[in-house]
Design goal:
This protein is an alpha/beta fold. It has 6 helices and 8 strands, in the order H-E-E-H-H-E-H-E-E-H-E-E-H-E. The strands form 2 sheets. Strands 1-2-8-7-3-4 form a 6-stranded mixed beta sheet. Strand 7, helix 6 and strand 8 form a beta-alpha-beta unit. The longest helix has 21 residues. It is globular and about 50 Å long. The chain starts with 15 loop residues before the first helix and ends with a strand.
Length: 191
């Protein structure tokens, strides 16, 4: 097959050279509206075309690769005595896989345990390309299963306004729990 970035022949969808040259993560951090830290791995413009594969067969491979290069590397360097659980935002299977579950799975280490099917949106309206006002007027209305852990990491793929993560944090706080921080593949607000 050919690398989708440089078109050289390779055994993977993106060759090792392009992975090194174009997909090395650049960590960014900002506060969400609720004050919780959001750590993201790529600038949106750097991976925008790859993100467009999300609801295709190719998307599974691209998200798996991006997760390996970013979330997995983060988890391997995240050494704490405390144990954490990670929750993927709305890991419902669409197009044959869940993109947020792929990212969440990459976090599995001795001190991070990914949980699945734990936080789901009852409102299925797509936020893609919608304004902040639209997002505020149409909340996700999350359902969260009972959580036992005190150390929680929330995982999403693309963050624009931070409304989805903020709503998820609020739902978790209703159980008397607090989100330690959030991770995202990309944060659109960062230039």
């Amino acid at each position: 097959m050919k690398c989708i970035l440089c078109e050289r022949y390779t055994f993977t969808h993106i060759c090792k050279t392009c992975q090194k040259n174009f997909l090395s993560p650049s960590f960014s951090k900002r506060k969400l509206p609720n004050g919780i830290d959001l750590i993201s791995f790529y600038k949106y413009e750097e991976i925008k075309k790859l993100l467009f594969t999300k609801h295709t067969d190719l998307g599974f491979y691209i998200y798996t690769l991006l997760a390996k290069l970013s979330f997995k590397q983060f988890a391997q360097k995240f050494h704490t005595k405390e144990k954490y659980i990670s929750l993927a935002i709305d890991d419902t299977i669409k197009s044959g896989y869940s993109h947020t579950a792929i990212l969440n799975h990459a976090l599995k280490t001795y001190n991070i345990s990914p949980l699945y099917n734990t936080i789901r949106a009852k409102n299925r309206i797509s936020y893609s390309g919608k304004s902040k006002i639209f997002r505020q007027e149409n909340p996700r209305d999350f359902q969260v299963k009972k959580l036992k852990s005190e150390n929680i990491i929330l995982v999403d793929d693309i963050v624009t306004t931070g409304q989805t993560l903020t709503q998820a944090c609020a739902k978790i706080e209703e159980q008397g729990k607090t989100v330690s921080f959030c991770l995202a593949l990309t944060d659109v607000s960062l230039k």
